[in-house]
Design a protein that fits this description.
CATH class of the largest domain in chain B: Mainly Alpha
Largest sheet of chain A: none
Strand order of the largest sheet of chain B: 1-2
Radius of gyration of chain A: 36 Å
Number of strands of chain A: 0
Helix content of chain A: 55-70%
Number of helices of chain A: 22
CATH topology of the largest domain in chain B: Cytochrome Bc1 Complex, Chain C
Helix content of chain B: over 70%
Largest sheet of chain B: 2 strands, antiparallel
CATH superfamily of the largest domain in chain B: Cytochrome Bc1 Complex, Chain C
Shape of chain B: globular
Shape of chain A: elongated
Oligomer: heterodimer
Strand content of chain B: under 5%
Order of helices and strands of chain B: HHEHHHHHHHHEHHEEHHH
Distance between the termini of chain B: 64 Å
Radius of gyration of chain B: 23 Å
CATH architecture of the largest domain in chain B: Up-down Bundle
Order of helices and strands of chain A: HHHHHHHHHHHHHHHHHHHHHH
Largest interface: A-B, 23 and 30 residues
Structural class of chain B: mainly alpha
Number of domains of chain B: 2
Number of helices of chain B: 15
Chain lengths: 410, 359
């Protein structure tokens, strides 16, 4: 009984210490002053034990107007101009953050100050993004939570809330169609259709807290963080020096930026998707090299397709061609490698990869032909065996008839 | 020459006394005589299994690391290896098919009647052994489908009340299907089962020889009414040559299947990969598998799978005792056996088709 009473009273004491009277009123108010108990319970700060007073001041244990008095340190609504500094007061304090999440970086405020947002903010522009515009307020979730505005799947939408808003972006002299373009890109497709959360979104190329356009000089570096081999090839090419001299933004010249579509061999062609001929003159050395590389790529693709068809026929005939299938995969890898080597713009290097692929495709084609020849050989063997068996059966039948005619059944 | 060998054997072993009864052996002739060939065809397919199995043994390696590769070698590099393996696999399936057909022909022709109860029992045990051959041999190529089908199959064994878990561990050589399971199945497949089967085949054939070949009751009654209609043929050479014709035809079918539809190898089993969709057992286990799938998770308060296993166990036991039910009073037993036969055949066919049609 004593234990029960103790538990009861101690429980009441604990409740008194944790009570947050702010929510008693604010959950009943209309927006924008409304903060429901349920919403705040989802907030990572609330889950870590912080309360309204941690940002807004005041004394949440008091249920009277004294809770919101200046003597209780009440700050009221945080002015937009104070938000980065207020968030930074904890998030830039490594010792403080270590108590909650030691793995979280503490340089967000420093980075923000270097960003386009931060620099304009410092100049007094209160229209630019501050912490809460991206992370939310009162229902702030960690980036790993799929409901968070800064989860990889939601980042583009979050950025688009401002950057796709023509009225909001008026006066900044930058386009507002990035989100629309990004939504059609191969990067977005990888993220949404294939569920690859490591696929690029806005912050992957622009940075998050230090967000800024990559600029002509850094485009290549940004792309090469993922496309390592393409970059290695590009560095060997004459295009890099030519583009740098002309002040052209590297990769973007051929691939564009936000609307990066899946590259096909037609980029090397002369049709509507062609990129080479935007700069080069028909008939020049580069045009000839382009045409040769395109033709060789097509040869390899055709060779793989041809052997693939033959191997499929062999497989449906029940032939074992698993080793040839492995070689075919290697031929496909050689084709992919050749397409990457295109970034060197060296027909010798590309042709080397293509030749490797053609050798493998030739091997698989031969394997397919051998399998079909073996299939025909087996069928001929079967035909002969069936004839032999039939003759034996007929012979037996005749022998039985003859012997029973001579010696009738019992 | 042949006579001299015969004389030599006669002098030492009284060969004529041994072969004599075989010379006198006869086989009844009537419109249902064709069903008599099924037992012989099953025996022929078993002999093919033994021969091709011995050839495969020369190159097969029973370990998780080498089994798949060794079968792949047999299929792709070895001269006529593909033919030997395909014949082995097709003959196994055909053997179980002919064994099932033989069993149902015995039921519907009522060949199990007194005094042939033991012939029926040894035949049934031979069918169980043939299914054991199929189950153990299926895993040996160590491919994905076989690996997961064995996993499911041994899991079902584990649900047998009381001794289930012990049986499962005994079969698997541990809690999981591993290389230890492969070596166990290999030992069963090439040593234990062939030994038992050979002994049982000898007993079965001796009993067939001892009791002679059964005449269906309808034909028997007709022959009794008019003895002039009764016809027999000599086992040697008349029936034997006809049986030989049946074996040749079976060989032709087997060769055609092996050449036109070589047995697939699939991909090597990866114990850490998730089970592929549509895992199914061999066709002769399908009716049981599909039944267990369709039984609700709980039947009253008992686990549905356990109910299924117990029902199949009891049904199997009753099926074994079929000859003894036939003797129950005034034709009631006979009607029960015929009803059970029709039900079992329809159920097996329907559930097998359903199993293959269901997604």
């Amino acid at each position: 009984m004593t234990l029960l009473l103790l538990t009861f009273f101690c429980g009441g004491l604990a409740y008194a210490q944790q009570q947050n009277t702010c929510l008693d009123c604010h959950s009943a108010l209309d927006p924008p002053l409304q903060v429901s108990v349920e919403t705040f319970a989802q907030d990572i700060h609330s889950q870590k034990g912080l309360t309204c007073a941690s940002c807004h001041g005041g004394d949440p244990t008091k249920a009277d107007p004294d809770a919101m008095s200046k003597s209780a340190g009440f700050r009221g609504k945080i002015e937009r101009g104070q938000i980065p500094a207020l968030c930074g007061s904890c998030h830039s304090d490594a010792a403080f953050m270590r108590k909650y999440n030691p793995s979280l970086r503490t340089d967000q405020l420093g980075q923000y100050k270097t960003s386009v947002h931060g620099r304009l903010f410092a100049k007094g522009d209160r229209n630019v993004a501050v912490c809460i515009d991206c992370h939310g307020v009162h229902d702030l979730r960690p980036a790993s939570d799929t409901r968070s505005r800064v989860h990889p799947l939601n980042v583009a939408q979050t950025c688009a809330r401002c950057h796709a808003d023509i009225a909001h972006m008026k006066g900044y002299a930058i386009p507002t169609d990035q989100f629309e373009k990004y939504n059609t890109s191969v990067h977005r497709e990888a993220m949404v259709a294939r569920g690859d959360l490591s696929a690029p979104t806005c912050t992957t190329c622009h940075g998050n807290h230090g967000a800024a356009p990559p600029g002509v000089d850094s485009v290549q570096n940004v792309c090469s963080t993922c496309h390592v081999f393409q970059n290695q090839m590009y560095e060997k090419s004459s295009h890099m020096t030519a583009f740098q001299a002309a002040g052209l933004p590297g990769c973007v010249v051929c691939h564009s930026n936000h609307r990066i579509s899946h590259p096909t061999d037609s980029r090397l062609g002369t049709g509507p998707q062609a990129v080479c001929m935007q700069c080069h003159t028909p008939g020049d050395n580069c045009d000839q090299a382009r045409a040769e590389m395109l033709a060789n790529l097509k040869d390899l693709e055709d060779a793989i397709q041809h052997s693939d068809k033959l191997l499929s026929v062999a497989e449906t005939s029940g032939m074992e061609v698993s080793q040839a299938r492995l070689d075919e995969d290697q031929a496909r890898d050689a084709l992919t490698k050749a397409r990457v080597t295109i970034h060197s713009f060296s027909k010798e290097l590309v042709n080397r990869d293509i030749q490797d692929g053609l050798n493998l495709a030739g091997k698989t084609l031969q394997a397919g032909k051998n399998a079909l020849a073996e299939r025909d050989y087996r069928r001929r063997g079967l035909g002969l065996a069936v004839i032999f068996i039939l003759l034996t059966v007929v012979g037996l039948f005749l022998y039985i008839r003859q012997s029973e005619r001579d010696a009738p059944r019992i | 020459m042949f006579t001299r060998v015969q004389d030599w054997l006669d002098e030492r072993f009284h060969w004529s006394d041994i072969v004599g009864p075989l010379k006198k052996k006869t086989v009844p002739i009537h419109q249902l005589s064709y069903w008599y060939f099924l037992g012989g065809i099953t025996l022929f397919l078993f002999l093919i299994q033994v021969c091709t199995g011995i050839l495969l043994l020369v190159y097969y390696r029973p370990s998780a690391n080498e089994a798949f590769e060794s079968v792949q070698y047999i299929m792709t590099r070895l001269q006529f290896g593909w033919l030997i393996r395909s014949i082995h696999s097709w003959a196994a399936n055909l053997m179980i098919f002919t064994a099932f057909s033989h069993m149902f022909s015995v039921v519907f022709l009522r060949a199990y009647r007194k005094p042939r109860e033991l012939t029926w029992l040894t035949g049934m045990f031979l069918l169980f052994l043939a299914m054991g051959f199929g189950f153990s041999g299926y895993l040996l190529p160590w491919n994905t489908l076989a690996f997961f089908a064995t996993k499911v199959g041994t899991e079902i064994t584990g649900r047998v009340p009381v001794i289930g878990h012990l049986l499962m561990v005994l079969l698997r050589g541990g809690e999981e299907v591993t290389g230890a399971t492969l070596t166990r199945f290999f030992a069963l497949h090439v040593a234990v089962l062939p030994g038992l089967t050979t002994v049982l085949i000898l007993v079965h054939l001796t009993l067939v020889q001892y009791f002679g070949i059964s005449v269906p009751p309808g034909v028997e009654a007709r022959w009794k009414a008019s003895p002039g209609e009764a016809r027999q043929m000599k086992f040697f050479p008349s029936f034997f040559l006809r049986e030989l014709m049946a074996w040749y035809i079976a060989l032709g079918v087997l060769g055609a299947l092996a050449a036109l539809l070589p047995w697939e190898l699939g991909t090597k089993a990866d114990p850490f990969a998730p089970a592929p969709a549509g895992i199914r057992p061999e066709w002769y286990f399908m009716f049981m598998f599909q039944t267990l799938k369709k039984i609700p998770a709980k039947v009253w308060f008992v686990d549905g799978e356990i109910v299924g296993i117990v029902v199949f166990g009891v049904a199997g036991l009753l099926w074994l005792l079929l000859p003894f039910f036939d003797q129950l009073g005034r034709g009631r037993g006979r009607r029960f056996v015929m009803g059970a036969g029709v039900f079992a055949l329809s159920y097996i066919i329907a559930m097998t088709i359903y199993g293959y049609m269901a997604k």
